[in-house]
Amino acid sequence: APESPLSSAEESVKSQQEEQMCRASIQEPSETSESQPGTPLPLPLPGHGGLSIQEMVAMSPELDTYAITKKVKEVLTDNNLGQRLFGESILGLTQGSVSDLLARPKPWHKLSLKGREPFVRMQLWLSDPRNVEKLMDMKRMEKKAYMKRRHSSIGESHSLDSGLSGSDLIQCASPQHLSQQQQQQPQQPHLKKPRVVLAPEEKEALKRAYQQKPYPSPKTIEELASQLNLKTSTVINWFHNYRSRIRRELFIEEIQAAAGEGGSPSARAGKSGGEGDNSCDGTESDSTAEGRPSGSEERKRLLESPGLSHRDEEGEGEFPSASGTSRPRGGIIDSLFGIPESVSVPTAAATPCRNPKDSSLRKKKAANLNNIIHRLEKAANRDEPHEWEF
DNA sequence: TTGGAGTCAATAGG
DNA sequence: CCTATTGACTCCAA
């Protein structure tokens, strides 16, 4: 009698950007997609109890993304498994994306359905008793393939052959085939893409502009672009990226703040694999450094106060927290997400190493304030339905 | 169109 | 090799 309901992971096909997420849940009958003859791969794939990940995501209870990533990082490092391998075979994401996800997971309630997918996959992976073993097998095989390729055949480029243990590799599509047509070198393979790299001064200038106006008008963007001698699209992209990255920093800050307080310190009895020293990641720095000491530093508790036009506040900005009432429970999902090993319950995470001396954070918050103000103005007389589910 | 969310993929450091 | 950063791109919703 196997103790685990489903041995595990038979993941799905995650064709690059094909297939959207069907809203799959409890509302739209469906009428999914209009037939697309061009692209096959309807991804039949079920795996767990016959559910696609999308379905699982839709039914998933709230997960503690921070705890999950923490655990994943721990398992990966303890076993010398890289993000690339993990990302490509378990999450269907590239290394850079995995790095980002693991380092700055957004709180569950701020994630879209799509964004929750990787976390559900991670949770699933964590609950698979043979996860590490499988990944190591894959690693071995990759190495073997690499050796072979490098040794014998010389002038042949091959990208990835696989004969991997066949079961749980998310068949990521072959590296080529992107639907992204972001390259325009039909003839000259030599014209590499420039890959704009902004100089520190340029970034500074942009950040300054952002402080002033997180949402510059097209005119302002034009001006900035010409002043800095950058393409307009670069400036636009920069603002898009910066805004969203700032936003994310604030999220993680929220998480840590919430984790920090709350009473009982770390002390948790994680028993699963983890010995290994798990030092806290003390990655805080935020290179925003200009020479200016900027003068005074002070406690800030801005943020959130000005916004919310009316009375709706009660610091909803928190994450897992209580969510006191009603929490849907899923049958098989429950068994999977139940509580494999201490991960999944919003525990008062332990992040001892966080010193209370954030400096540039203040600036970010201030900028965020502008951001909020901007939105309020823009929404003038429209109220935002603001409810976090759950 | 604009902005947000998610990612990709080049590349800078280890 | 590996990970972190980041400009650009796709999708989608308003």
UniProtKB/TrEMBL annotation:
Homeobox domain boundaries: 189-249
Location of this chain's protein in the cell: Nucleus
Residue spans of biased composition, Polar residues class: 27-36
Stretches with biased composition (Low complexity): 1-10, 160-189
Source organism superkingdom: Eukaryota
Location of region: Disordered: 1-49, 146-195, 259-335
Biased composition (Basic and acidic residues): 11-21, 295-313
Domain CUT: 54-141
DNA-binding residues: 191-250
Stated family: Belongs to the CUT homeobox family.
Full protein name: Homeobox protein cut-like
